[in-house]
Specification:
With 267 residues, the chain is an alpha+beta fold. It has 8 helices and 10 strands.
Length: 267
């Protein structure tokens, strides 16, 4: 079961500034290196789960967030069939309102409020589709099992035209650019699939050279294990896959845009 919940809290400007100031204080005298690869905060990694820094971080968070500040939660619910359901709820006191997913027309009680990523071996699917996910389909893989495939065959290749693949790469790079797209302008499936699909296509020899992409003075290299970086069936964008920390390129770029180099992550 590969599932997760993200809780989004609303803080006023003064509270948010106080949190930022205290986070800087927690860093102490530790140097910030723009060439450092973003990953688990090295101080937390060195001190471990019983360390003073993590205790102070927990206290800082709990001092500022709770049910009164909870504005939204989003979820990813995986199952044994390698399908992940995405959705979210806006919170207003005791009232929960499903979040409309960008690009999906809301036409009844459920449609438009949930989306699915499915994996068949290395073939990927997103449903319901959106304009962005349909452009990414050129990178999702095409069946390559031949005219009489053996049962269960999921061999794949990228068989779309060069122009379609280039359009898919351009869309992935656009979605990864936090200056151009946000969680309010991209559907869940496209957001979570863009980076892994692009990385896999590039590993298969499809070049994205010359296409517009996000840049920053910070080191935007991913710290993921190599087998996770171009794996579209590892759908987490910010969290852990078992004991391995996983960041999407979009999430890395968001922190590069803000100048946040070290991320504090706890299991």
């Amino acid at each position: 079961m590969d599932s997760a919940i993200h809780l989004l809290y609303d803080l006023d400007a003064d509270a948010f500034r106080a949190v930022l100031d205290q986070l800087v204080s927690l860093r102490g005298d530790a140097e910030v290196d723009v060439h450092e690869i973003l990953g688990v905060n090295p101080v937390l990694a060195a001190e471990g789960e019983e360390g003073a820094t993590l205790a102070a971080l927990r206290e800082l968070i709990l001092d500022h967030v709770g049910p009164g500040q909870l504005g939204r939660f989003t979820f990813m619910l995986g199952n044994e069939s390698f399908t992940w359901q995405f959705g979210g709820l806006d919170v207003d006191g005791a009232t929960l309102t499903p979040v409309a997913i960008h690009g999906i027309e809301v036409d009844d009680e459920n449609h438009g409020h949930e989306q699915f990523i499915s994996a068949n071996g290395r073939l990927m699917f997103v449903a319901p589709t959106t304009a962005k996910s349909r452009t990414l389909e050129a990178l999702m893989g095409d069946n390559d099992c031949g005219p009489m495939p053996p049962f269960g065959c999921a061999a794949f290749a990228l068989k779309h035209t060069d122009a379609e693949i280039e359009a898919g790469l351009a869309m992935a790079l656009r979605i990864e650019n936090p200056r151009l797209e946000t969680a309010e302008t991209v559907d869940c499936g496209s957001c979570h699939q863009a980076g892994p699909l692009r990385a896999r296509a590039e590993a298969l020899g499809k070049s994205s050279a010359g296409l517009p992409r996000f840049s920053s003075r910070w080191n935007l290299t991913l710290s993921n294990a190599a087998e996770l970086t171009g794996a579209p069936n590892r759908v987490r964008a910010f969290g852990y896959f078992h004991a391995e920390p996983v960041l999407s390129q979009r999430e890395r770029n968001r922190r590069g845009r803000r100048g946040h180099q070290r991320v504090m992550v706890n299991t």
